Amino acid sequence: MDAHYISFTHSNEPERCLLKVFPSELRRQYAAAPGQGTQNISGIECTIMRMEYTNSDCIVRLASNNGVPVLFDAVLVILKTYHPLEDIEITFHPANIKLDSSHLDLSDANECKKMVQYFFPNINVTNQYENDMIIKISTCSACM
Fold it and tell me: Considering its fold, how many domains does the chain have in total?
């Protein structure tokens, strides 16, 4: 996956890379929410809870595939310290697709996360509640 990365350059100096990140995970976050009904557990009536999707985080690694993991949102904060985001171009490798501010709003982290999902379809996707993985439900082969 060394060839799968995102590079950020300044529109006036496209040959100079400001930052390179390697997408490693799309993490869907869930929170417990009250469901309908109750259940009796050991003599105590409890509200049935359900898991509700809240947001998605995109984890990238700085500079290399083994670099420090950070949220994509932090990348935008780092880039803002160099130049206005409107002056920065983003290139998705290995597709070699370059987008500038007329095609992608870098100040919108959600839009950037969607681009990661679009250009890296084989990225590891996880579902989490707080810091714990939610059990992955597999499709029953007998049911198909």
Answer: 1
